[in-house]
Design brief:
It is a single chain. The chain is about 45% helix and about 15% strand. It is an alpha/beta fold and about 290 residues long. The protein has one domain (about 5-245): 3-Layer(aba) Sandwich (Rossmann fold), CATH 3.40.50.720. Pfam families: adh_short (PF00106).
Length: about 290
């Protein structure tokens, strides 16, 4: 009897990185299920069965995972890719907006992971691949809540990996850098704009748009995901692409001051102002 291909569930395959990941697994002969909030408006992917899923809706999460198990009999690999960004200064996002972002980028990931894990534990094998970002270990001026959600994914994944190893389940994080997708155009603007931030905010958004256009092809990230999902000896973190690998090394080895200056230069921000003491009348605090 021929061995059945491993079953992969990938969230957020309608475009960009998620779509590239689905294509990569399908090309390698995996049995692939891809999710989208609206499958009717998602262009079909050869070799991929599309199922509806809203990661912010617990009932939708349960239904999606149940559908995969009913049709395939098991799940071997979960790739958590669904997410979105918010562009603007941290002060410009309401707490409601920040909670909505976390509900997708972090709690949505946690919801579907909790739904899939009982199946992986029962079969005593499996792999969970969480799509993080270099912003999961670096700051993102004018993208603080997005970066915070990716920092949360890093911490959650590292802790979860220790908990699930005894059941034969490993958890890894793939960390892309700038990737040529519609991320910037699909990102949401901060909902409480403040005039003081406008000039620099708009400037940083232009820098981001240029960087995304010049970024890695999503297929580069997809190949790293494929490697992370199938490695016999998985690492916890997989930087995806040349820039991500360089930034990962800089985070580990560069002096903090040099890294700080590099972040400001990369975002084309002004030099940090001269330090002043709290209470100094010349500090001009507002």
């Amino acid at each position: 009897m021929a061995q059945r291909s491993p079953v992969v569930l990938i969230t957020g395959v309608s475009s960009g990185i998620g779509r590239a990941i689905a294509n990569a697994f399908a090309a390698e002969g995996f049995e692939v299920f891809g999710t989208s909030r609206n499958t009717q408006r998602t262009e079909p992917i050869p070799g991929v069965e599309l199922i509806p899923l809203d990661v912010t809706d617990p009932a939708s999460v349960t239904a999606a995972v149940s559908t995969v198990v009913q049709r395939a009999g098991r799940i071997d690999i979960l790739v958590n890719n669904a997410g979105f960004g918010v562009l603007g200064a941290a002060e410009e996002s309401s707490i409601d907006q920040a909670q909505q972002l976390f509900d997708t980028n972090f709690f949505g990931l946690a919801r579907i992971t909790r739904e899939v894990l009982p199946y992986l534990r029962a079969q005593r094998s499996g792999r969970i691949v969480n799509i993080g970002s270099v912003l999961g270990f670096l700051p993102a001026p004018y993208g603080a809540f997005y970066a915070a959600s990716k920092h949360a994914v890093e911490g959650y994944s590292e802790s979860l990996d220790h908990e699930t190893r005894e059941f034969g389940v490993r958890v890894v994080v793939v960390e892309p850098g700038y990737t040529s997708t519609s991320f910037e155009s699909n990102a949401t603007d901060a909902d409480s704009p403040i005039g003081s931030y406008a000039p620099i905010r708009d400037h940083v958004k232009d820098v981001l748009a240029q960087s995304v256009r010049a970024g890695d092809d999503p297929a580069v990230v997809a190949q790293v995901v494929l490697k992370a999902a199938t490695s016999r000896a998985p690492k916890l973190r997989y930087p995806a692409g040349p820039l991500a690998r360089r930034l990962s090394l800089l985070k580990k080895f560069a002096p903090a001051g040099l890294l700080d200056k590099g972040i400001r230069k990369a975002n084309k921000l002004t030099s940090s102002p001269k330090p002043t003491r709290i209470g100094d009348p010349e500090a001009n605090l507002v």
